[in-house]
């Protein structure tokens, strides 16, 4: 309670503290507040997992879908365009909980709730905001996740129309800064690829679907992207063959995010997925596990991508600990 009182005093009377030479005390109060907020957040996560429920404050009402047909879909969700309070356009991601075996639903729900609570605490200009959750009354298990509707779609769709007027390196820098923020918040994205990087109305990037790789695991493996390429193309070798790295199972890490970021750079520059010349997923996996990586495309030998190629190769290092951090990549992009 003493710490709480100090926090409240600091927030109400910062100027008096400074007049009294209380800079150090003010800094202590700021750190104490962050610590208390982190403890409260962790408690909410644990409570949600224990009771297998989401806090009621996360649920949103007054949602209307524009159509009963989804505008997009993937392996684990259907996406609808809707409105909130009549005038706010939202993306409604309805999870396909009915497609998960009954014995896995409880564990799956706990993980979804955990991700939703974590997402709600994140605030960054290059990270997609989370409005809240919604239960679709037309579905028996119609749990939906709500976020702002992104006018320009994902970065690949945006570049297919606006590539000539866009500074590619600026977009990559925004992606890097958003991913660095997630890592500083102890969040591993787990599914970094162009389809999960959206463009907002100001033409800035918004990283989406972090943590949602758990859904693919609950569906029994990886899933296909809109281009038909499996998500394995973006996966680091230690995820494809954990035993080779003395791991009992695949565990997504900051380093595997960095590996995928290298492929995102390739996607953004070329408009094509990694190993775009290979259609068979098993062939791609074999190449990656044998240490092979994408080669600089012939049509990009004189492009800006060529100067960035050494950076991409560092991201693709076979040894996770040898890959650069996002902070180092940001410096390289400046």
From TrEMBL:
<dbReference type="Pfam" id="PF07714">
    <property type="entry name" value="PK_Tyr_Ser-Thr"/>
</dbReference>
<dbReference type="InterPro" id="IPR011009">
    <property type="entry name" value="Kinase-like_dom_sf"/>
</dbReference>
<dbReference type="InterPro" id="IPR000719">
    <property type="entry name" value="Prot_kinase_dom"/>
</dbReference>
<dbReference type="GO" id="GO:0004674">
    <property type="term" value="F:protein serine/threonine kinase activity"/>
</dbReference>
<feature type="domain" description="Protein kinase">
    <location>
        <begin position="65"/>
        <end position="334"/>
    </location>
</feature>
<dbReference type="InterPro" id="IPR001245">
    <property type="entry name" value="Ser-Thr/Tyr_kinase_cat_dom"/>
</dbReference>
<dbReference type="GO" id="GO:0005524">
    <property type="term" value="F:ATP binding"/>
</dbReference>
<dbReference type="InterPro" id="IPR051681">
    <property type="entry name" value="Ser/Thr_Kinases-Pseudokinases"/>
</dbReference>
<dbReference type="InterPro" id="IPR008266">
    <property type="entry name" value="Tyr_kinase_AS"/>
</dbReference>
<protein>
    <recommendedName>
        <fullName>Protein kinase domain-containing protein</fullName>
    </recommendedName>
</protein>
